[in-house]
Write a structure and sequence with these properties.
It is a single chain. The chain has about 200 residues and is mainly beta. It has one helix spanning about 90-100, and strands at about 5-15, 40-50, 55, 60-70, 75-85, 115-125, 125-130, 135-140, 140-150, 160, 170-175, 180-185, 185-190, 195-205. Strands 1, 2, 3, 4, 5, 6, 7, 8, 9, 10, 11, 12, 13 and 14 form a 14-stranded mixed β-sheet that branches. It starts with a strand and ends with a strand.
């Protein structure tokens, strides 16, 4: 197995009401029924610094979309991946290995839950951070952004430890901004006002 590590930033936007019961409920994590019966979620990643067996990954972006037809722990997920079009062949292979969980790391926790691989596409992915807002644009496919949910805390953010595999120690509670949409693989979502999270990430295998 190749050695790899990365640091960066991530956000997600799903179709659950705030806060998502998959992570915050009286049931064990991922066993609660999504608030709309099924889960439609996008997870978007920006790598600030990273390397895979000596191949640099600095500055690259990745987006994953998943549909789970019921409680996430029940599996049967359908997943599609979007890789940064700027990645060369070595970088593309590295991103594929890391973000499928094939080479260990956080995404390996999700791998047993995936039943259908929808595909992998190389596309332009524009990831932006403006203050506490995160956004992504994949032209013609995805336009999503999240912002912190309202809080009485003077920082304007709610940070919590949810044990989320992507960022287990620290994650912010957020929601989709208006116009947070996805359309591809025969699916169309509008997750505006729905649950979101964002966090710094630090991964390795």
């Amino acid at each position: 197995m190749a050695k790899w590590q990365l640091t960066g930033d991530y956000f997600e936007n799903c179709n659950c009401d705030v806060a998502c019961p998959c992570l915050v409920s009286s049931s064990p994590p991922l066993t609660a029924k999504p608030t709309r019966g099924a889960c439609d979620v996008a997870l978007v990643f920006h790598i600030d610094q990273g390397s895979y067996d000596g191949t640099p990954l600095d500055g690259l972006n990745v987006a994953l979309i998943a549909h789970a037809p019921g409680p996430m722990a029940d599996g049967n997920w359908s997943v599609g991946a979007y890789l940064d079009e700027r990645a060369d062949d070595k970088q593309t292979a590295a991103l594929g290995a890391i973000f499928t969980g094939a080479e260990g790391g956080p995404m390996a926790a999700f791998a047993p839950l995936i039943a259908t691989q929808l595909g992998v596409k190389k596309v332009p992915i524009r990831y932006a951070i403006q203050g506490t807002n995160r956004s992504v644009e994949i032209p013609g496919i995805m336009q999503m952004a999240v912002e912190p949910i309202p809080t009485m805390h003077p920082s304007g953010e709610i940070w919590t430890t949810l044990g989320h595999p992507v960022a287990p120690d620290r994650i912010a509670l957020a929601m989709g901004r208006g116009g947070s949409t996805f359309g591809d693989y025969g699916m169309r979502w509008d997750n505006s006002g729905r649950n979101g999270h964002y966090a710094p990430i630090s991964w390795s295998n």
